[in-house]
């Protein structure tokens, strides 16, 4: 009889380059912001085009990753998921909380293309919900006949959240968008999709407030405010100097 494993060591097989540079404003699941685009750079022995031979037959892939940005906070058996308004407790294993016994996340993302640049295998993905520099511990093809269960019950998370927020841009924001048109052609759509998820704490949903929020996407500091309960204005978009 073999022993029960009590510890295991995993090494990242890849690292994510994401427009989400901080946790605030990252969508709460993949696919909600389909204009989010990122890449995965394969690492070590896995950085070999043979490791991904055949992968582009699949439009979507599973990513298993480490919640490296919240790992040190540990976990508790009960958590308050945002979908329950952030004020009801439920077992951690009944949620997709980032604070888990093992800090492992899983996301289905769209695989747009695979590239080799200077001997580095790069996977281009979209719809990600991942923080920049997220360590990837495995990649597998998404197989709809088995991975998708259309009639499954999903309790408090049965359907995609319906928020119906509208987003508008101030004059300053519009002119900055114009100057960034070449570099980031889909930026306006991306900002709109991110904000229409309402990144504020769950208890504020469907409520207005006067606070000016800041979020970082790419190398941009984006300031926005609620104009009404269902209406957001992007006030300013500023490049963060010295970053790339
Ligand atoms: N789809 C995954 C993650 C859901 S939680 C799963 O179900 O396992 C999504 C949240 O994870 C995002 O809102 C973001 O704030 C957080 N997140 C994404 N990447 C992270 C990382 N590397 N470290 C910590 N938190 C991360």
Give the helix/strand layout.
Layout: E1 14-17, E2 37-42, E3 60-66, E4 78-79, E5 90-91, E6 104-117, E7 120-126, E8 135-141, H1 144-147, E9 166-169, H2 171-179, H3 187-195, E10 212-217, E11 220-228, E12 231-239
Parallel strand pairs: 9-12
Antiparallel strand pairs: 1-2, 1-8, 2-7, 3-6, 3-8, 4-5, 6-7, 10-11, 11-12
S-adenosyl-L-homocysteine is lined by residues 23, 26, 28-30, 67-70, 96, 98, 105-107, 129-131, 134.
Quick structural summary:
This protein is mainly beta. It contains three helices and twelve strands, in the order E-E-E-E-E-E-E-E-H-E-H-H-E-E-E. The chain has helices spanning 144-147, 171-179, 187-195; strands spanning 14-17, 37-42, 60-66, 78-79, 90-91, 104-117, 120-126, 135-141, 166-169, 212-217, 220-228, 231-239.
Q: Tell me what the CATH architecture of the largest domain is.
A: Beta Barrel
How much of the polypeptide forms β-strand, as a percent range?
25-35%
Largest sheet composition: 6 strands, antiparallel, barrel
Low-confidence stretches: none
Can you give the helix content as a percent range? under 10%
Bound molecules: S-adenosyl-L-homocysteine
Structure class? mainly beta
Averaged pLDDT, please? 95
Q: What is the strand arrangement across the widest sheet?
A: 1-2-7-6-3-8
Shape: globular
Using only C-alpha atoms, the radius of gyration works out to 19 Å
What distance separates the N and C termini? 53 Å
Overall CATH class of the largest domain: Mainly Beta
CATH topology of the largest domain: Elongation Factor Tu (Ef-tu), domain 3
Oligomer: single chain
The CATH homologous superfamily name of the largest domain equals: YaeB-like
- How are helices and strands ordered from N to C? EEEEEEEEHEHHEEE
- Count of individual domains: 2
Number of strands: 12
